[in-house]
Amino acid sequence: MQSLLNFLLPTNSFMPHGYCFLWQPGLLWLLVASHLLTALAYFSIPLAIAYFLEKRSDIVFKGLFRLFSGFILCCGITHVFAVIMIWQPYYALEGILLAVTAAVSLWTAVVLWTLIPKALLIPSPAILLKANQQLQDEIFVHQQTKAQLTRINADLDRTITLLQASNQAYQESEQRFKAVVNLSPAAIYTSVLTDKLRYLYRNTFVSDAFLPITGFTPQEWHDNRYLWVDRVHPEDLAGLLDKVQRLPELEHLDMQYRFRHKDGTYRWVYDKVNFLPSLDGLHDEVIGAWMDITEAKKNEEEMRLAAITFNSLQGIMITDAQTHILRVNPAFSKITGYTAEEVVGKKPTILRSGLHNDAFYDDLWQRLDNEGRFEGEVIDRRKDGALFTKWQSITALKNSDGVVTNYVSMFTDISEKKKFEEHIKQLAFYDPLTNLPNRRLLEDKIEQVLTDLQAEECFFAILFLDLDHFKWLNDSLGHHAGDELLKQVAGRLRSGINEQDTAARFGGDEFVILLNTASSLQHEATDIIISRATQILYDLNQPYHLSNSGHYFSTSIGITLFSNKLVCLPEELLQQADTAMYRSKAKGRNTISFFDYSMQEAADRHLQLESNLRLALQEQQFTLYYQPQVDANGEMVSAEALIRWLHPLQGLIAPSEFIPLAEDTGLIVQLGQWVLSEACQNIKRWSEQGLTFRHIAVNVSAKQFQQSDFVEQVAAIVNNSQIDPRQLMLELTESGLIDNILQTVEKMRRLKKLGLSISIDDFGTGYSSLAYLTAFPLSQLKIDRSFVNDVTDNRSNEIVVETIIHMADNLGLEVIAEGVETQEQVDFLLQKGCKLFQGYYFSRPVPAQELAAKWLRKPNGLV
Fold first, then answer.
1. Rounded to whole angstroms, how far apart are CA atoms 64 and 767?
2. Cα 501 from Cα 257, distance rounded (Å)
3. What is the rounded CA–CA span in Å between residue 114 and residue 417?
4. Mean pLDDT of 831-855
5. Which of 782, 695, 707, 717 is nearest to 744 (CA)?
6. Distance CA 180, CA 237 (A)
7. Under DSSP, is residue 405 helix (H, G, I), strand (E, B) or coil?
8. Cβ-proximal residues to 111 (8 Å cutoff; 6+ apart), any chain
9. Which residues contact 176 (CB under 8 A, 6 or more apart)?
10. pLDDT tens digit string along 606-639?
11. Cys-Cys with 636: which of 256, 368, 529, 628 at CB 3.0–4.6 Å?
């Protein structure tokens, strides 16, 4: 070693300075070698760190590594200077170097201490090694997995290829399935369960057949989940929802309900549903099919109705195309009397009555051939031979080629209906008592004649007949005898006219005959009518057998003749004949009168008089005259109030002209009330003047007396005028008391209770019996002027007057004779016991002022 040093350091100047370690060359070089090797090691570390940092750019603590590299570098330099300082003591430089090294070391230490907590978190190398091993294992596993994934991916590629091929096949199969489904008339659908209450199932497939059945396309069914719920008939919905909710439990459903088509109409559908559960219960499915059964429902209803109809009350007969009977229903047998066994195989001709000719059946078959239907009224014959009328409907049934296969006949027995119609016709157009045409039918016939006369020239006549004194018969023998008389008269009229003529009952005891003269010449037609009317009058004058005895009755006849030259309505012609009839009445009855226009003028005057009479009542154009009623000495005892009409243009109109008109029009009631009120006012006025009289007599018409409140009306007038009721006497006509005896007696008793007196006017002209007479609470009988007029010359009237006087005396009634005009009549009446008189012999009717001035007296006898 020393030899080597000598060779390396040939001079002593390169020997270390100072004394170190008892300087030995071997030790010296050992120190130098150690410092250099240490420095070399230090220098390699920064290089390694620099390389490491270069390669690991993601290192977090790069600054620390660089600081540490600087520290190691400083340490290496320090070792190099330690070798240099052995031979060259550069103490200043060494001090600087050591100071830098110390600073770097201190700074490195500070940094390291701050990093120690973080460094402690760094796993130990063993752990890192273990983690590294695990990482290596995972890498190995991942590599294996990657290999497996590679193999799986290859398998998946193969599977995807297979799935694509399968999906293509599935799509083609689904298309074929849809094509097959859409060819089906049934509408197929599939659904899955939902959690919605309004739609429990959501459609997943809807076939095209839903479009013709519902009017909605499959897309519309998919887009609107509420479509089914919203369009099911409300009456069906509740029950359907209950069934659908139970579908998982029931598994199968067969439903029929009404669904509202898109056009707004309801269609019947048959819905067959199957529930297909899944294994996991999460993919349950429903498959169903719809069929439009609307026509089937209609056919079902028609079949039901047909079954009901076949068992109905209508007779039904079904034949083949050759009209051989195939089937009949029970009603057929009930109506015709034939059982099904008796008619099956035969033809309907077994029912023919023989009343229809060949033309009728030719028309029937022509309508069946042309229209396929016949409907009309047919008369057939039952099994027992009895005829019956039926309303028959025959329908020809044809196949799809238009060939008739069957005939269906339905008929109803309308025999009773026809009888009822005849009965109704009889009631509507015929008089139920006489069975003669009534007024309505008569006017129809006259109108038909007037229509027919437009095409031909011929004279017709209307005869208006009225039975004379018919009311007397009713009053004496009763209405039953009156009805019997009317029937006998109708029978004689019916047998006395020709077939083309018409005899009708017009009403009450009035008859009308419409006669065809068959002549176009007026004079000839007139002669014919006179001859026919005379014969009719003769026939009606023959005795009638009523109530076991013979009775004679006369008839008044009025005739009007007309042709196509006369334009009239039926009502006008009847009015003309009626006017002529009243002319016969005026001529003394039991005669014939023809209508002429002078009679029509009289009728017009009659109408004008009625109008004037109504106006007179409104304007009070009436006044009262009074005719004194005197005793044997000619002294006035009482007076009768008589109405007069003071017309502003015509002057005084006699009662004989307007009283009958007032009776006919009903104005007599209002007129009578005025007379009664006016008479009471005069009675009050005379009483206040001190004039004396027994009473004033006022005539009361039958219509006025028959008013239900007549007694109340009289009582009110008497009370309002404040007169003594004993000063008022009511004169009632004999004929007006007979209609209702019990009611008449009751009214008369109430009037007597008021204090009034009652007299029967025109006694002897009516039909009062003694029994009725004794029942009436009368005060007086008035002998009619018709008996007084020729009492001295007519023995019969003399006997009647004498009888009346004696009867009144025996009944305790006062008697007065009216119409006294001569002294001889007065003497006769006095001789027979009559003590009161009224007539022109003593005084004409005079105004109230004249009566008071000439006839009424004060109690002292002064006028």
1. 167
2. 70
3. 131
4. 92
5. 707
6. 31
7. strand
8. 64, 67
9. none
10. 667 878 888 988 988 999 999 999 998 999 999 9
11. 628
3-state secondary structure of 100: helix
Cα 17 to its chain centre, rounded Å, is 149
CA 785 vs CA 639, 695, 763, 833: distances in Å? 16, 21, 9, 17
- Integer angstrom CA distances of residue 186 from 123, 213, 223, 272, 676: 77, 9, 21, 10, 98
Contact 563, 526 (CB under 8 A): no
Q: State pLDDT tens for residues 225-248.
A: 888 888 999 998 888 888 888 888
DSSP string, 244-283: HHTHHHH-EEEEEEEEE-TTS-EEEEEEEEEEE--SSSSS
Distances 791 to 755, 815, 830, 838 between C-alpha atoms, Å: 34, 16, 13, 15
Pairing of strands 544-546, 549-551: antiparallel
18: tokens are: 């100072």
Q: Quick one: CA torsion of 168, 173, 178, 180, rounded to 10 degrees?
A: 150
Max CA-CA distance within the chain?
235
Residues 792, 802 contacting (CB under 8 angstroms): no
**Nearest to 693, CA basis, from 784, 755, 759, 626:** 626
**Alpha helices, DSSP H only, in 438-541?**
439-452, 470-477, 479-495, 522-540
- Residues 441-499 pLDDT 10s: 888 898 888 888 887 888 899 999 999 888 888 777 888 888 999 999 999 999 988 88
Name, in order, each residue with C-beta under 8 angstroms of 562's C-beta and a sequence gap of 6 or more.
Answer: 459, 460, 461, 462, 568, 573
pLDDT at position 91 over 90: no
